[in-house]
Specification:
The complex is a heterotrimer of chains A (about 230), B (about 400) and C (about 400).
Chain A: E1 2-15, E2 18-31, E3 35-39, H1 46-53, E4 61-66, E5 69-70, H2 76-86, E6 87-90, H3 102-112, H4 117-130, H5 146-159, E7 164-168, H6 176-193, E8 196-200, H7 204-209, E9 212-217, E10 220-226
Parallel strand pairs in A: 3-8, 3-9, 6-7, 7-8
Antiparallel strand pairs in A: 1-2, 1-4, 4-5, 9-10
Helix pairs in contact in A: 3-4, 3-5, 4-5, 5-6
Chain B: H1 3-11, H2 15-55, E1 58-61, H3 78-85, E2 91-105, E3 110-118, H4 120-123, E4 133-136, E5 146-150, H5 151-157, E6 164-170, E7 176-187, H6 192-197, E8 198-202, H7 203-209, E9 218-223, H8 229-237, E10 246-249, H9 250-253, H10 255-292, H11 295-303, H12 308-344, E11 346-347, H13 352-357, E12 363-364, H14 370-392, H15 400-405
Parallel strand pairs in B: 3-8, 5-7
Antiparallel strand pairs in B: 1-9, 1-10, 2-3, 2-6, 2-9, 4-7, 5-8, 6-7, 11-12
Chain C: H1 2-10, H2 14-51, E1 57-61, H3 78-87, E2 93-105, E3 110-118, H4 120-123, E4 135-136, E5 146-150, H5 151-156, E6 164-170, E7 176-187, H6 192-197, E8 198-202, H7 203-210, E9 218-222, H8 234-244, E10 250-254, H9 255-258, H10 260-298, H11 300-308, H12 313-346, E11 351-352, H13 357-363, E12 368-369, H14 375-401, H15 405-410
Parallel strand pairs in C: 3-8, 5-7
Antiparallel strand pairs in C: 1-9, 1-10, 2-3, 2-6, 2-9, 4-7, 5-8, 6-7, 11-12
The chains are: A alpha/beta (about 230), B alpha+beta (about 400), C alpha+beta (about 400).
């Protein structure tokens, strides 16, 4: 079942008078339960594609359907709600709100969804246990290691059971052992809870973990390999 | 973890900056509360000073008398009216007074003066005159053929206690009014015009000499409190006995006083607005910083699905928490300061002489009221709120992608 | 070199610099504009009082101020007048007057006032009565029976131009004299109380009426005008006159002695203005410290690096302070120009306090206030901000020297 359908999408950036085609007529489909990496050198358009799928950037041409809904037809507020309900994000770094504790960071998204506090607490407790940080619940991000911070970010991304989790270079600031642990965690989420993951990365390790690797080059799909 | 707590924690992310911002607001709030209390206090002093010196809170007069003090414009049957007024709630004193112009002569010299006919006991409550007698004594009930005169007039006419003087004027009916008086008291009020050209005699003598037929020029009413003036006015207006008469309140009796207070208040408020605007710009940078240094964070929040309106609310809450803390602290300190000085009083040193010329005391007492405690902080709150809106309203323009890219 | 660097650093964050600059500019220019209005108000008060038959210096019989009776007069003043004129700087005006308490009566009204005998030609530019009357005419030398009364007095007695009134006063021999005059002119002044207090007749007429020959009661001196302030030293001139007039019965006083209340207010005025400057400065000081702190913290790495490269702390302090100095100097210059423009172009015709006329009268100030911009106010406001403002920079500057390279690299 297709969760994301990208049809002939182009995205052009203007810098002064020069045009830069970040994406050039890209089409692809991502199905439920995939664990997919968008690969390519920097400037190849992988982050742009990820942002477009996540509804935080808009395409100049073409359509993107998320869960069957055309993103370009949505207003700002509706897009925000869509992101809240259907998409989880994990960024490279500075993912967390520094003034909130680990648990509060995860809980924040549930608060945005207006979920009653008793249910919130249960869900947060469960997910923190899943990412193995139940004992760090009351610590602030600055008191956690980089790897722990990213695990909390993953917990926040999956806690509301989104249709898809988008991760932009989640391992870039981590050493290889920590990075591996993080990928193990996400893989486990993928197999245990059927969470769909899409990465934008140029980390070899992430590509090894991925079951499908889409390689972008100069804004076009150069390769699409399913393992 | 309510939004309030989140905002509060954000405020203290940069304690030094927040503290300085709060201090700026505290400073403004203290100043505004204190200065407004001071101004309002001095206005009350001014009203009371004027009311006590001459006008009373309310007066009943014959129509037209206020504009042209002509002898024949009288309140007839004044004693009967006093009986009507005295039982009204909030009335503390009712005094009758008449005025005439007459030539006062000593042995060699003479001068035109204003003669006041007063009821000594009742007048005591409307005027500070009894305390300003420098020689001799004040008038008493039953006195006859005696007069109090101003110190400069006494000097001018070369008169002293026990001397006789003659008075020559015109009665209510236009006939010649003449009488002989013995000086029993000399007063110095500090107001030259009063000390130079006024004489006080008893109401009964005045009535007799100027053929007043028991009429008076002014019925002077003193109220318990300023707030009693309106109900008293209404009570008088509904009483048929007063239908053909004019009822004047202190602000009509001394219009300059009211306007001078308004003028003072307005120039004060202009100064306060300038001050608050300067403070607002001083803190605007803090509000902006709280926004710009966290652009990436807002990008993350927008990405995970927070609506822009929520972030606007969050930023505004942070700015207003800062402001509230400052205003609350400042108002408390301002109130404390005001209460302290409302007992101590503030001396004006050399300025006392100037104040005396306007008939005030040389010490000022700030007076705390709801108005003086709230007006300044409210002004501060409103202007700071609009200042806080400037950065906050930039959030909806923020694109998540751009925000994420900034660091 | 420091200045160029400081200038570029200032504009690295344009918004922040502009915001604090706005605070500084609003602050300083309102300091100066408010000062100009206050000073204009006071100046109006002073010149109203001086015009109110006071003059810069007045010479009277020494008993006259305390007891203004006709027997305390200046006998045969011709020689004295010549003597005084010779002692004064060129451009000074000298007028003689005679005044007495009097009663003005109509058929139904009696009013007490001060009757002043004047030479109308000499009064021009010395007192308010020298101005053209509001109605009617000033009397020429021929008209012996004309009187000029104030607008408010006329209203009070319900009189009109041309009406006859009777003046009663005491002559030099102590007898009461009554004489009829025709209202020939009406004067209007800033202050209603003045309009009720005085009435004017011909000097000669009054001298004849009182039977005093050529005697007068006062000599008023107007010193050459210089923007409201006489260029000559008022106190010294007064003392000189007092020491040199031949008649030792006479007393010379200047307006500061005659109007002690206004005089002491004037002395306090500069102090009031300084307090106002300080308050506004404090309001912006918090913003200044905060902005400089932000500028310094933002460049933590840079300062750390400069120290690592061997820059001395003194140089870093100099760097930060020159940025602040530049900011303040820039703000001060713009504000002074803005204040100047505001006063000279927007308020050149003054502010009309017509709706508060009686309130203005209460304080003895004019209905129309003309702002008066003085160099003292501009210099004082700018100095307060510049000097004290530099102190606010010390804390951020010292902070900047405390950043060590190792520490700062960990941030960001």
């Amino acid at each position: 079942m297709a969760i994301v359908t990208v049809n002939n999408v182009s995205r052009i950036y203007h810098q002064g008078k020069t045009e830069f085609k970040a994406l050039d007529d890209v089409s692809l489909t991502i199905n439920k339960g995939e664990f997919t990496a968008l690969a390519g050198p920097s400037g190849s358009g992988k982050t742009t594609l990820l942002n477009l799928i996540g509804g935080i950037d808009t395409a100049d041409k073409g359509t993107i359907l998320l869960d069957g809904q055309d993103l370009s037809s949505l207003k700002k507020g509706e897009l925000a709600d869509l992101r809240l309900q259907d998409i989880g994000f994990v960024f490279q770094s500075f993912n967390l709100i520094p003034v909130l504790t680990a648990a509060e960071n995860v809980e924040y998204i549930l608060r945005l969804q207006k979920i009653p506090s008793s249910i919130r607490r249960q869900k947060v407790k469960a997910i923190l246990a899943d990412v193995g940080l139940a004992d760090k619940a009351d610590q602030r991000p600055s008191e956690l290691s980089g790897g722990q911070q990213q695990r909390i970010a993953v917990a926040r991304a999956v806690v509301a059971s989104p249709a898809i989790v988008l991760a932009d270079e989640p391992t870039a600031n981590l050493d290889s052992v920590t990075g591996q642990k993080l990928l193990d965690l996400m893989q486990q989420m993928n197999t245990d809870k059927q969470v769909t993951f899409v990465f934008a990365t140029h980390d070899k390790m992430v590509m090894d973990y991925a079951r499908r690797v889409i390689t972008l080059k100069d804004g076009r799909i150069a390769d699409d390999i399913r393992k | 973890m309510g939004d309030m707590i989140l905002a509060w924690r954000n405020v203290w992310r940069n304690p030094r900056r927040s503290l300085l911002t709060i201090l700026a607001i505290v400073f403004a709030a203290v100043l505004l509360v204190f200065m407004l209390s001071f101004q309002f206090g001095s206005y009350e002093d001014m009203i009371n000073a004027t009311v006590r010196q001459s006008t009373g809170h309310l007066q009943v007069q014959s129509p037209g008398y206020h504009d042209r003090q002509e002898m024949h414009l009288v309140v007839a049957d004044a004693q009967h009216l006093v009986a009507e007024i005295e039982p009204i709630n909030g009335v503390s004193n009712v005094a009758l007074r008449s005025e005439a112009f007459a030539l006062m002569s000593g042995e060699k010299r003479s001068r035109g003066t204003t003669i006041f006919g007063i009821q000594p006991e009742k007048e005591k409550k409307v005027t500070t005159l009894p305390r300003q007698i420098k020689q001799g004594r004040y008038l008493q009930k039953g006195d006859h053929g005696v007069a109090l005169i101003g110190s400069l007039l006494a000097k001018r006419l070369q008169l002293t206690i026990g001397d006789e003087c003659t008075m020559l004027g015109q009665g209510k009916d236009g006939s010649i009014a003449a009488a002989l008086f013995t000086i029993i008291g000399i007063y110095t009020t500090g107001v030259d015009a009063v000390d130079r050209a006024t004489v006080h005699i008893t109401f009964a003598d005045f009535n007799h000499i100027f053929f007043m037929e028991k009429a008076a020029h002014r019925v002077i009413i003193t109220a318990e409190h300023l707030a009693d003036i309106t109900p008293i006015t209404q009570a008088l207006q509904s009483n048929p006995a007063f239908r053909s008469l004019t009822i004047l309140t202190w602000d009509k009796l001394a219009p300059g006083l009211r306007q001078s207070m308004e003028l003072d208040l307005i120039s004060g408020i202009i100064m306060y607005i300038i001050l608050v605007v300067v403070v607002a710009f001083s803190v605007l940078n803090t509000f902006f910083m709280a926004f710009f240094e966290r652009t990436r964070e807002f990008g993350v929040l927008l990405s995970i699905g927070a609506r822009p309106a929520r972030l606007v609310r969050m930023i505004l809450t942070e700015s207003m928490l800062l402001t509230f803390t400052g205003i609350a602290l400042g108002t408390l300190i301002g109130i404390g300061l005001t209460v302290y000085f409302s007992h101590q009083g503030i001396s004006f040193g050399d300025g006392g002489e100037l104040l005396a010329q306007y008939g005030f005391e040389d010490r000022f007492y700030p007076r705390l009221s709801w108005m003086s405690a709230c007006l300044g902080p409210a002004l501060l709150l409103i202007i700071t709120f609009f200042t806080a809106l400037i950065p906050a309203l930039k959030v909806p323009d923020l694109k998540p992608v751009d925000a994420l890219r900034s660091c | 070199m420091y200045i160029i660097l400081a200038w570029r650093n200032l504009w690295r964050n344009r918004r922040r610099t502009l915001i604090i600059l706005t605070a500084v500019i609003i602050g300083i220019s309102s300091m100066i504009v408010m000062a100009a209005f206050s000073r204009g108000t006071v100046q109006g008060m002073v010149s109203n009082s001086i015009n109110n038959l006071v003059g810069h210096i007045k010479i009277e019989h020494q008993q006259h101020p305390a007891d203004p009776a006709i027997e305390h007069r200046i006998i045969t003043p011709e020689k004295l007048l010549r003597q005084i004129t010779a002692m004064l700087p060129p451009g000074s005006r000298v007028v003689q007057r005679i005044r007495a308490d009097a009663m003005l009566s109509t058929s139904r009204e009696h009013v007490g006032l001060v009757l002043v005998g004047i030479d109308p030609d000499l009064e021009q530019g010395v007192s308010f009565i020298g101005r053209p009357p509001a109605q009617g005419t000033l009397f020429g030398n021929q008209n012996q029976g004309g009187i000029i009364v104030g607008r408010s007095l006329l209203k009070k007695i319900n009189g009109k131009l041309g009406q006859k009134v009777v003046i009663t006063c005491q002559g030099a021999d102590g007898t009461n004299i009554a004489k009829a005059f025709r209202i020939q002119g009406v004067f209007a002044t800033e202050l209603e109380s003045t309009e009720r207090a005085f009435a004017f007749v011909q000097l000669h007429t009054m001298q004849q009426m009182l039977g005093v020959g050529n005697d007068i009661t006062e000599i008023a001196i107007q010193l050459p005008d210089n923007n409201g302030n006489p260029p000559v030293d008022l106190a010294a001139t007064t003392a000189f006159l007092q020491a040199n007039v031949s008649d030792k019965q006479l007393l010379a006083r200047n307006w500061r002695q005659m109007l002690p209340a206004i005089s002491s207010y004037l002395e306090m005025f500069d102090g009031f203005m300084l307090i106002w400057y300080l308050i506004v400065f404090l309001a912006m000081a918090f913003g200044l410290v905060n902005t400089m702190l932000m500028a310094v913290y933002e460049r933590m790495r840079e300062f750390g690096l400069l120290q690592a490269l061997g820059m001395r702390p003194g140089c870093i302090i100099k760097m930060v302070m020159s940025e602040l100095l530049l900011l303040l100097t820039f703000g001060c210059s713009i504000s002074s120009v803005a204040a100047f423009i505001t006063v000279h172009f927007f308020f050149s015709s003054g502010i009309d306090l017509a709706i508060f006329a009686e309130g203005a009268e209460f304080w003895g100030i004019s209905r129309i206030i003309y702002p008066l911009l003085t160099s003292w106010d501009i210099i004082a406001a700018n100095s307060v901000v510049l000097l004290l403002g530099m102190f606010t920079g010390l804390y951020p500057a010292l902070r900047a020297t405390k950043f060590s390279p190792v520490q700062t690299m960990r941030h960001v």
